[in-house]
Design goal:
This protein is about 60% helix and about 10% strand. It has one domain. It has about 160 residues and is mainly alpha-helical. Helix 3 packs across helix 5 and helix 5 packs across helix 7. A three-stranded mixed beta sheet has the order 1-3-2, covered by helices on one side. The chain is elongated and about 70 Å long. It binds zinc ion. The site of zinc ion (ZN) has 5 residues, from helix 5 and helix 7.
Amino acid sequence: MGENILVIVVGLLILWVFRYLHTNQHLGRIKLDLMTDAGIQYTSKTMLEFLGEEYKQKLPKLNFGDLSKHKAEYDIDLVFGVYVYDQKMIILDIDALKKHGHNINYLAEIISHEWKHYVDHLLDITYETVGVEMCEQRAHRFAKEGRKLIMKNIELEQ
Ligand SMILES: [Zn+2]
């Protein structure tokens, strides 16, 4: 009886360790401030390229820069990334992401969020046509799904 329980407990423990080592959870938790800017830029590009392949879409432009001046225009939690409609461009603020202690999982979420604005734009679902709230809801809802897809893919590539 006691032995059976021990076997189950040990079995579960092994399963848990196996799962931990073979998922990207630890990878996703890597803090961006431990990475170089070039490394983060490369990772961002790779994530975006994956979404492009996954959804069979041409890629939007990707740029990096200080977004603090956009704070008034955008929602406070969105200053880490923006999508610029007239240039079909995603801009990410690497310094802000680092400063706020964000990790690779969060980077994948931000990129997914901005990606959703881009693919919506291609379908003419924009701030102008359906309103800010609708666009943000759609992007927000997609962010976690996109992150999961991206991180699963990165795991497989390793
Ligand atoms: Zn947004």
